[in-house]
Amino acid sequence: MEICIDAPAKINLHLQVGRKREDGYHDLLSVFHLVDLADTLRVEKSGPAGEIAVHGPFDFPVKDNLIHKAAERYFSGYRLNTGKEPEAGVEVRCTKRIPDGGGLGGGSSDAAAALKALSLLFPVSEPERLLRESALAVGSDVPFFLSTPAALAEGRGELLRPLPPLKGYALLLLFPGLKISTPAAYRAVDRRREKGAAEKTRFCAEELESGWEKLMRSGSLYNDFTPAVEEFFPGVEGFLRELREAGAVFAEMSGSGSTIFAIFHKNSDAERASRLFLERGWGAHTGKMLARPIEPVYNEPII
Ligand code: C5P
């Protein structure tokens, strides 16, 4: 049996970086939302027990691949849970569409999708628990991709509260072709704070009751990484202004960058704004927010 599963990207509609904790991570307050740009994973049992093979257009060592890490974690949890070796190995083929290192959680989503597929191929008695624990061990953003299309995330990113999805808007993702290292972006936020940069007002989830449209226009949603990464991504705040002037209801950078997103009422406005950036050599994706069911797992005949 081969399982084919989509691994969608996310954007952060809000991303507030809190204090640095004793474990080296920062507390977060963030609004995650799935979007319709996705990688695809094909996952099947293959090879000797517990062996992991991952294929895809990756330019880093396989051991650093989050799909590989997820499978290692899953298999060690499987051994503890069942007291036996998995009856085979696993082979994963990944078709990448989400740019790497762009703040869209592509690697994290691939890992979550691999975990979901593994839990179907190698079932255990408490799958939710094993998935949650393996996800957080692989990365802070991974647990979100196991859950709902939109969520408020706290802690390292693992304390999740489902939110109503953002329906009926057009989405524009813009890729300037820069890779920003996540740890370097966190260090840039810390440096700004040490220099005395004012902290913004803390976002309050109750504000969501007034609805997404009002919230997006209120100035309550922001990303603490945006002013901090100016040194790696010159002009980022100017690009966001430009998108708002082009009619975006809301525009921000996603995660620690460098992808910028903008939300419009009309597809035609998103398309028009995308052309402004395509002319400068940027990449672009126009699409939608995602409000699909929690388990996007399906089988496809192999042709
Ligand atoms: O958990 P993940 O591997 O995605 O995190 C990568 C790096 O980002 C961490 O090593 C840490 O430097 C930083 N990070 C952080 N606080 C978080 C998430 C990540 O400082 N909540």
Overview of this protein structure:
30% of the residues lie in helices and 27% in strands. With 303 residues, the chain is of the alpha+beta class. Strands 1, 2, 3, 4, 5, 6 and 11 form a seven-stranded mixed beta sheet that branches. The chain starts with a strand and ends in a 5-residue tail after the last strand. Helix 1 runs parallel beside helix 2, helix 1 packs antiparallel against helix 3 and helix 2 runs antiparallel to helix 3. The chain has eight helices and eleven strands.
Mean pLDDT: 92
Can you write the helix and strand succession as a string? Answer: EEEHEHHEEEHHHHEEHEE
Number of strands: 11
Bound small molecules, deduplicated: cytidine-5'-monophosphate
Proportion of residues in β-strands? 25-35%
Instruction: Report low-confidence residues grouped into runs of 5 or more.
Output: 299-303
Radius of gyration: 19 Å
Shape: globular
Oligomer: single chain
Estimate percent helicity. 25-40%
Question: How far is it from the N-terminal to the C-terminal residue, by CA?
Answer: 13 Å
Main beta sheet strand tally, sense and closure = 7 strands, mixed
Number of helices: 8
Helix- and strand-based class? Answer: alpha+beta
